Amino acid sequence: MLFVLPLKDIVAAKIAITLYNDCEILHLCKETKLYLSPEEDWKVIIKKKLPDDVYPLSLQEKIMSLMKPISYEVEMWKEQHETFNGYQVDQRITSKFHWKTDGTIDRLKTASSLIQSDVLPMKQRFRLACNYWQEESVLSIWEQMSAGLRDDFCYIEMDDYLESDFFSNINVIEWIRWHTQIGNSNMREKKWFLAYNWDSVSLQGLLPQKLTPDERLEIINRTFEWNSDDHSCRFCLLLMPADQRLEVIKKNPFKVLKSFLFWPGQRMFIEMAHLVKNDLEDYQFFDLLHIIIHQKILHNWDDFDYFELIREFWSLIPNKCKEFFEGCNMLKPIELIVANSRLKEPDLKKYLLRVQQRENNASEIAMNFGKRFFLPHLHGDTYRH
User: Fold this and answer.
1) Residue 374 — very low, low, confident or very high, per pLDDT cuts 50/70/90?
2) What is the pTM of this model?
3) Nearby residues of 106 by Cβ (< 8 Å), 6 or more positions away
4) Can you say how many angstroms the Cα of residue 93 is from the centroid of all Cα atoms in its chain?
5) Which residues contact 170 (CB under 8 A, 6 or more apart)?
6) Helix axes 135-144, 168-180, angle to 10 degrees
7) How distant is the alpha carbon of residue 50 from its chain centre?
8) Phi, psi (degrees; rounded to nearest 5) at 76
């Protein structure tokens, strides 16, 4: 399963990545995360960097539409690698990023680049190599370590790893036990890979490529069971042969569909939805539509036609499931979007914002009532009208 993008999208993604790494844009991203911001002020800055005589208007629009997905991709990488490089990631690290043509980070190549550079301290390069299963780098860095640094790692190893600060240390411990023959490493035993910590980092390392299809299926099933990270769930499907994929999709319909709401997976969302529409619970249809409206449309994500996505998705929801939406604030906006004739998209966004504001006001009233009623009781007072 590959995301084959039109040439225009590939060109736009390459330019958008270059723009994202521009000093002015990076400074802006320190102040606000583009993917979370409904504000469009940043577009003025980018527009100045895309002269009309060089970039056709349609290409400009596509480039700008990809800035939020790229921002999201970078922030997810930072969050999932915080244990190795801290959250304050500077340009020395982002300059090592390797990007795929679809506008997503090639995590394995990026890890290799960081491991082989001097951007990170040796201790963190070693931990990163252990988690990405870069065997040659693990052994090479271990040989370069000072005796004191090796002792630090062995001290971690001698502790119960479940008490370690980070789950990623589990993988470091397994490597050290195997290499030093200290402790009882199970790396040569049957199903030893199940002791490995499988997360958004290790899943995209070299080890999954070395496992058999059945072994990969076992770790993928565990990942879907324990991990709700969209990036990991979608990547798991890419690891699988086609004959195993359908079973996993139907067993985890909501997580799969949710993961395909992010670039560049939206093109396959409806295809996936057709496969699992009879496996979803009523509330899961609601949750998916809520994500599209509140996280995408209201935050001005333009990387996909989310209005058309709602229309197509709504058309395949079984009628009995649509009854779940009766009396819900979200039903009217959905009906307006599906009708496609009553309001223009800017007006629909205004309507959705009003609905969201009413929901926020209702939540605030309920919260204030709770404080007014329950807090006096907690302090031994009696609530009086």
Assistant:
1) very low
2) 0.84
3) 98, 99, 100
4) 19
5) 161, 164, 195, 196, 197
6) 70
7) 29
8) -65, -40
